[in-house]
Amino acid sequence: MAKKNKSIRIFSILILLGAIFFIFSDDIIRYFNIWNNKQSKISEKENSFNNISLNNSMNNNKQNILLVNKEYGLEKGYEPDDLEAIQVNSNKEILLRKEASENLKRMFKDAEKEGIYLLAVSGYRSYEYQEDVYTTEVFNRGEEYADKYVAKPGYSEHQTGLAVDVLAENYTDMDINFENTEECRWLHNNMYKYGFILRYIKGKEDITGYSYEPWHIRYVGIEHSNKIKEKGVCLEEYLGK
């Protein structure tokens, strides 16, 4: 008899759980869809973006631009399949995506013709590398400072292989005073011709989420860099994000 009552109780519990799931099934499914969409929102674009030439006619649509900031992230395993070592003046081996690398090379060569000697100091960073950078900054300066100046792993533009930090041969400190150099002025006035934009603009901190960085440039393709330069907007504004 006790065994029979136990079976009845178990059956009743299963019926109750089934009823609860039936009642809330739409909400449960919606939650998992939202979570899954959030995880794939950028990764889906990553896959298509890998196969897009940034200057071809198909990419006149600005929605093809890969956006990475504090809201839009990359998957941990994301790594562009066309990374190559840049062939410009740098302080170490630096990787960028092929098209960005080629245009960076053109820009550096043209700068040298005008007596401007630029120096690349950082390009592609893996998720793991950015994790080390962020953790170190938190340890040294605290989380509040780190969140203001350093991207969390998975939310760094450097992981796209399209961002590069540029200083000068005669100025290698990554600080705000770089903007006072002749090299920085040349960079800001000319990089749009080669498909690059200044990613973190002065006065746009509340939109980009980061403080002004005169050295951090991002490749978006010549079609878009010209439009962004003309409008005087940051990438988020250009994309309507």
From TrEMBL:
One of its GO terms (molecular function) is peptidase activity. Pfam families: VanY (PF02557). This is D-alanyl-D-alanine carboxypeptidase-like core domain-containing protein. GO terms for biological process: proteolysis. Gene3D superfamilies: 3.30.1380.10. Residues 94-221 form the D-alanyl-D-alanine carboxypeptidase-like core domain.
